[in-house]
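Re: export button greyed out
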Amino acid sequence: EDQVTQSPEALRLQEGESSSLNCSYTVSGLRGLFWYRQDPGKGPEFLFTLYSAGEEKEKERLKATLTKKESFLHITAPKPEDSATYLCAGYNTDKLIFGTGTRLQVFP
Amino acid sequence: KAGVTQTPRYLIKTRGQQVTLSCSPISGHRSVSWYQQTPGQGLQFLFEYFSETQRNKGNFPGRFSGRQFSNSRSEMNVSTLELGDSALYLCASSLGGFETQYFGPGTRLLVL
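Workaround output, generated via the alternate export path:
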Protein backbone atom coordinates (compact mmCIF):
# COMPACT_ATOMS: atom_id res chain seq x y z
CA GLU A 1 0.00 0.00 0.00
CA ASP A 2 1.29 3.43 -0.92
CA GLN A 3 1.95 5.63 2.08
CA VAL A 4 3.89 8.62 3.33
CA THR A 5 4.92 8.88 6.99
CA GLN A 6 6.33 11.96 8.66
CA SER A 7 8.21 12.25 11.92
CA PRO A 8 8.22 13.67 14.44
CA GLU A 9 4.57 14.72 14.75
CA ALA A 10 5.60 17.83 16.62
CA LEU A 11 8.90 19.58 17.20
CA ARG A 12 9.77 22.46 19.47
CA LEU A 13 12.99 24.32 18.76
CA GLN A 14 14.65 27.31 20.26
CA GLU A 15 15.47 30.07 17.80
CA GLY A 16 18.79 29.20 16.13
CA GLU A 17 18.59 25.49 16.99
CA SER A 18 18.92 23.56 13.71
CA SER A 19 17.06 20.30 13.13
CA SER A 20 15.63 17.96 10.50
CA LEU A 21 12.17 16.69 9.66
CA ASN A 22 11.76 13.21 8.20
CA CYS A 23 9.45 11.92 5.47
CA SER A 24 9.48 8.19 4.73
CA TYR A 25 7.63 7.03 1.66
CA THR A 26 6.53 3.92 -0.15
CA VAL A 27 4.85 5.12 -3.33
CA SER A 28 4.88 2.79 -6.31
CA GLY A 29 6.26 4.45 -9.40
CA LEU A 30 7.14 7.62 -7.51
CA ARG A 31 7.45 10.53 -9.90
CA GLY A 32 8.24 13.22 -7.39
CA LEU A 33 8.05 14.34 -3.80
CA PHE A 34 6.79 17.69 -2.57
CA TRP A 35 7.35 19.70 0.57
CA TYR A 36 4.71 22.22 1.62
CA ARG A 37 4.34 24.59 4.51
CA GLN A 38 0.91 25.20 6.04
CA ASP A 39 0.00 27.96 8.46
CA PRO A 40 -3.13 27.60 10.61
CA GLY A 41 -6.34 28.25 8.68
CA LYS A 42 -4.55 28.53 5.34
CA GLY A 43 -3.87 26.32 2.35
CA PRO A 44 -0.48 24.64 1.95
CA GLU A 45 2.25 26.78 0.43
CA PHE A 46 4.59 25.09 -2.03
CA LEU A 47 8.24 24.84 -0.99
CA PHE A 48 10.09 22.22 -3.06
CA THR A 49 9.76 19.40 -5.56
CA LEU A 50 12.36 16.62 -5.61
CA TYR A 51 12.46 14.13 -8.45
CA SER A 52 15.37 11.75 -7.95
CA ALA A 53 17.53 10.31 -5.20
CA GLY A 54 20.46 12.54 -4.38
CA GLU A 55 18.67 15.71 -5.36
CA GLU A 56 18.84 18.69 -2.99
CA LYS A 57 17.04 22.03 -3.05
CA GLU A 58 17.46 25.07 -0.84
CA LYS A 59 15.43 28.11 0.01
CA GLU A 60 16.56 30.52 2.72
CA ARG A 61 16.92 28.46 5.92
CA LEU A 62 15.40 25.31 4.41
CA LYS A 63 17.10 22.50 2.52
CA ALA A 64 15.29 19.43 1.21
CA THR A 65 17.03 16.18 0.28
CA LEU A 66 15.81 12.92 -1.20
CA THR A 67 16.94 9.30 -0.97
CA LYS A 68 15.26 6.20 -2.38
CA LYS A 69 13.20 5.77 0.79
CA GLU A 70 13.20 9.08 2.62
CA SER A 71 13.25 12.81 2.32
CA PHE A 72 14.55 15.26 4.87
CA LEU A 73 13.77 18.90 5.41
CA HIS A 74 16.69 20.52 7.18
CA ILE A 75 16.04 23.79 8.98
CA THR A 76 19.14 25.82 9.75
CA ALA A 77 19.05 28.45 12.48
CA PRO A 78 15.25 28.65 12.52
CA LYS A 79 13.34 31.78 13.44
CA PRO A 80 9.91 32.08 15.08
CA GLU A 81 8.36 32.86 11.69
CA ASP A 82 9.32 29.35 10.56
CA SER A 83 6.67 27.99 12.93
CA ALA A 84 4.14 26.07 10.83
CA THR A 85 3.13 22.56 9.85
CA TYR A 86 5.38 21.05 7.21
CA LEU A 87 3.82 18.51 4.86
CA CYS A 88 5.44 16.14 2.44
CA ALA A 89 3.64 14.33 -0.36
CA GLY A 90 4.61 11.74 -2.93
CA TYR A 91 2.94 11.33 -6.27
CA ASN A 92 2.76 8.88 -9.15
CA THR A 93 0.59 8.91 -12.24
CA ASP A 94 -2.74 8.54 -10.48
CA LYS A 95 -2.44 9.75 -6.93
CA LEU A 96 -0.86 12.25 -4.61
CA ILE A 97 -0.41 11.04 -1.04
CA PHE A 98 0.26 13.40 1.82
CA GLY A 99 1.87 12.65 5.14
CA THR A 100 0.14 13.94 8.26
CA GLY A 101 2.75 16.62 8.77
CA THR A 102 5.22 17.83 11.38
CA ARG A 103 4.05 20.73 13.51
CA LEU A 104 7.08 22.94 14.13
CA GLN A 105 7.21 25.57 16.86
CA VAL A 106 10.21 27.87 17.10
CA PHE A 107 10.32 29.99 20.22
CA PRO A 108 12.59 32.97 20.93
CA LYS B 1 -0.66 36.63 -11.05
CA ALA B 2 -3.72 35.95 -8.94
CA GLY B 3 -3.66 32.80 -6.85
CA VAL B 4 -6.22 30.06 -6.45
CA THR B 5 -9.49 31.33 -5.04
CA GLN B 6 -12.20 29.37 -3.27
CA THR B 7 -15.71 30.35 -2.33
CA PRO B 8 -17.28 30.40 0.11
CA ARG B 9 -14.63 30.47 2.81
CA TYR B 10 -16.95 29.19 5.53
CA LEU B 11 -20.13 27.17 5.50
CA ILE B 12 -22.45 25.75 8.11
CA LYS B 13 -24.89 23.05 7.02
CA THR B 14 -27.04 20.44 8.70
CA ARG B 15 -27.00 16.70 8.19
CA GLY B 16 -28.78 15.56 5.04
CA GLN B 17 -28.28 18.82 3.17
CA GLN B 18 -26.06 19.19 0.15
CA VAL B 19 -23.33 21.72 -0.52
CA THR B 20 -21.46 23.08 -3.55
CA LEU B 21 -17.99 24.56 -3.28
CA SER B 22 -16.26 26.58 -5.97
CA CYS B 23 -12.63 26.89 -7.04
CA SER B 24 -11.03 29.25 -9.55
CA PRO B 25 -7.53 28.13 -10.57
CA ILE B 26 -4.52 30.21 -11.44
CA SER B 27 -4.85 31.61 -14.93
CA GLY B 28 -3.46 29.13 -17.47
CA HIS B 29 -3.74 26.14 -15.15
CA ARG B 30 -5.91 23.39 -16.59
CA SER B 31 -5.75 20.88 -13.75
CA VAL B 32 -7.75 21.26 -10.57
CA SER B 33 -7.57 18.82 -7.67
CA TRP B 34 -9.70 18.68 -4.56
CA TYR B 35 -8.65 17.56 -1.09
CA GLN B 36 -10.30 17.05 2.27
CA GLN B 37 -8.28 17.95 5.35
CA THR B 38 -9.25 16.80 8.85
CA PRO B 39 -7.22 16.69 12.07
CA GLY B 40 -7.40 12.91 12.22
CA GLN B 41 -6.80 11.95 8.57
CA GLY B 42 -4.72 14.82 7.28
CA LEU B 43 -4.96 15.77 3.62
CA GLN B 44 -6.79 13.23 1.49
CA PHE B 45 -7.16 13.36 -2.27
CA LEU B 46 -10.72 13.53 -3.58
CA PHE B 47 -10.40 13.90 -7.36
CA GLU B 48 -8.59 15.66 -10.15
CA TYR B 49 -10.02 17.33 -13.23
CA PHE B 50 -8.18 18.26 -16.39
CA SER B 51 -9.85 19.91 -19.37
CA GLU B 52 -13.32 19.19 -18.00
CA THR B 53 -12.62 15.46 -17.49
CA GLN B 54 -12.15 13.66 -14.21
CA ARG B 55 -8.82 11.88 -14.57
CA ASN B 56 -8.20 10.54 -11.08
CA LYS B 57 -10.33 9.78 -8.06
CA GLY B 58 -9.55 9.02 -4.45
CA ASN B 59 -11.36 6.66 -2.09
CA PHE B 60 -14.42 8.70 -1.23
CA PRO B 61 -18.08 7.68 -1.54
CA GLY B 62 -20.20 8.71 -4.49
CA ARG B 63 -21.76 11.49 -2.40
CA PHE B 64 -18.67 13.47 -3.34
CA SER B 65 -18.68 14.65 -6.92
CA GLY B 66 -17.21 17.41 -8.97
CA ARG B 67 -17.05 19.03 -12.34
CA GLN B 68 -14.89 21.40 -14.29
CA PHE B 69 -15.99 24.06 -16.71
CA SER B 70 -14.40 25.14 -19.98
CA ASN B 71 -12.69 28.07 -18.22
CA SER B 72 -11.07 25.54 -15.82
CA ARG B 73 -13.14 26.68 -12.86
CA SER B 74 -14.26 23.73 -10.81
CA GLU B 75 -17.04 22.90 -8.40
CA MET B 76 -17.29 20.17 -5.83
CA ASN B 77 -20.60 18.88 -4.55
CA VAL B 78 -21.33 16.83 -1.45
CA SER B 79 -24.81 15.40 -1.14
CA THR B 80 -26.56 14.04 1.95
CA LEU B 81 -24.07 15.61 4.33
CA GLU B 82 -22.86 13.66 7.35
CA LEU B 83 -21.26 14.95 10.53
CA GLY B 84 -17.96 13.40 9.43
CA ASP B 85 -17.88 15.61 6.35
CA SER B 86 -16.91 18.56 8.54
CA ALA B 87 -13.47 19.50 7.25
CA LEU B 88 -11.36 22.01 5.40
CA TYR B 89 -11.82 21.46 1.67
CA LEU B 90 -8.87 22.58 -0.40
CA CYS B 91 -8.48 22.88 -4.10
CA ALA B 92 -5.19 23.10 -5.92
CA SER B 93 -4.34 23.96 -9.48
CA SER B 94 -1.43 23.06 -11.70
CA LEU B 95 -0.43 23.15 -15.32
CA GLY B 96 -1.03 19.43 -15.50
CA GLY B 97 -1.87 16.67 -13.08
CA PHE B 98 0.11 16.26 -9.90
CA GLU B 99 2.98 18.44 -11.00
CA THR B 100 3.61 21.34 -8.68
CA GLN B 101 0.22 22.29 -7.27
CA TYR B 102 -0.77 25.62 -5.81
CA PHE B 103 -3.42 25.56 -3.14
CA GLY B 104 -6.27 27.89 -2.40
CA PRO B 105 -7.15 29.07 1.13
CA GLY B 106 -9.82 26.39 1.53
CA THR B 107 -13.48 26.26 2.43
CA ARG B 108 -14.20 25.31 6.02
CA LEU B 109 -17.38 23.24 6.19
CA LEU B 110 -19.14 22.53 9.46
CA VAL B 111 -21.96 19.99 9.45
CA LEU B 112 -24.30 20.14 12.42
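The longest strand of chain B covers residues 42-50. The button fix ships in the next patch.
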